[in-house]
Amino acid sequence: MFLLLSAAIAPGLALFSYFYLRNQMATEPRKTLLQTFIFGALITFPLMFIQYVLREEGAFSNPYLGDVLVASGLEEFFKWLVIFLLIFRHVEFDDPYDGILYGASVSLGFATVENVLYLLSFGIDTAFIRALLPVSSHALFGVVMGYYFGKSKFQKNDKEIEYLLLSILIPFVLHLIYNSILTFKGYWVILIAPFMLYLWWTALRKVKLAHQHLVQHLYEQKHN
User: Fold this and answer.
1) Domain ranges of the chain
2) Which of 47, 145, 185, 191 has a CA that sits 20 to 30 A from residue 221's CA?
3) Residues 106, 36: contact at Cβ < 8 Å?
């Protein structure tokens, strides 16, 4: 059991540590990040319940609608809601890169609990592929989401609402593409590899841009 739990939790911690350590300009309070991670973990259970009810009630005659479209939308919306309601106006969300950390934190909280439940059901044999795909993809969706939250809060160009919309729309579209690829049985592996490379490239580019915004933000603070 210890080995299984370690295998389930380790990918999320490793990915979060990676994005946390990339922030060399400032240190975000660990307590707030931990709280965000916990909230991300807690939303797993209402999400699972809603999806179970929809499935049992036969709310969608087309499996694609329920398993891909609705699942992608619900997961990204709940993660977005946690950041918007609990973090976006928080005093400790005080620089553009913080969005990256909070987005990754809430997403990895959700992904970690989901991963634990999955490995408990299907065994440790799936741990490696789970780390490569579901856990890392959730982290990267969260990075993109957090990037646009940071833009919304700190970009001084009257586009707060536009960036807020992008903070949920773009992760949803990426998640939708990811889930859609997994429905192509037989050759999904051929499609998922380039998509994951693109997802990593996109997320790392957002991280780089967030660093640039952070440097500019600190410069403006220093000279104002």
Assistant:
1) 2-222
2) 145
3) yes
Segment 195-203 long-range contacts (CB within 8 Å, at least 24 positions apart): 196/132, 196/133, 196/136, 196/137, 199/137, 199/140, 199/174, 200/136, 200/140, 202/140, 202/144, 202/174, 203/139, 203/140, 203/143, 203/144
Give the span between the Cα atoms of 193 and 185, in whole angstroms. Answer: 14
pLDDT for residue 25 is more than 60: no
Q: For the chain, what percent of residues have pLDDT higher than 90?
A: 47
Distance CA 126, CA 184 (A): 19
Contacts of 149 (CB under 8 A, 6+ apart): 83, 84, 87, 88, 99, 102, 103, 163, 164, 167
Burial class, 70, CB count within 10 angstroms (exposed 0-12 / middle 13-18 / buried 19+): middle
Q: Residue 64 corresponds to which amino acid?
A: Y
Which residue type is seen at 115? N
